[in-house]
């Protein structure tokens, strides 16, 4: 009986942990952020109008034709509401996907 109770507690704790890892980062990181992002020929550009964070930066995964791997390139850390953060691929690469991250300073 004691081992069954212990096993159920472990399963419940594991489920709560898994739910927290999949739900909390997405909602906490994006709930209060007001950002626009666009792709150009070689770049991924982000502008954040408002956020719960102080700074943001763009990041882009760049693909080179004939290669199996991607290279991640980063834009400058930029203060929210001031200017765009631009992550650039080289002229021999294409943007495959882009995203942005935040930090407080």
Automatic annotation (TrEMBL):
Q: Which UniProt keywords apply?
A: Signal
**Domain of life from the UniProt record:** Bacteria
Name the InterPro entries for this protein.
Answer: TAT_signal
Q: Which residues form the signal peptide?
A: 1-31
- Protein name as catalogued: Uncharacterized protein
Q: Which organism is it from?
A: Nonomuraea coxensis DSM 45129
């Amino acid at each position: 009986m004691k081992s069954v109770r212990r096993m159920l507690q472990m399963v419940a704790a594991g489920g709560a942990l898994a739910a927290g890892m999949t739900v909390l980062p997405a909602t906490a990181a994006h709930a209060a952020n007001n950002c626009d992002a666009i792709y150009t020929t070689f770049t991924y550009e982000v502008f954040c109008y408002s956020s719960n964070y102080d700074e943001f930066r763009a990041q882009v995964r760049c693909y080179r034709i004939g290669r199996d791997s991607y290279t991640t390139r980063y834009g400058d850390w930029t203060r929210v509401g001031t200017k765009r953060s631009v992550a650039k691929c080289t002229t021999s690469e294409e943007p495959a996907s882009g995203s942005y991250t935040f930090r407080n300073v």
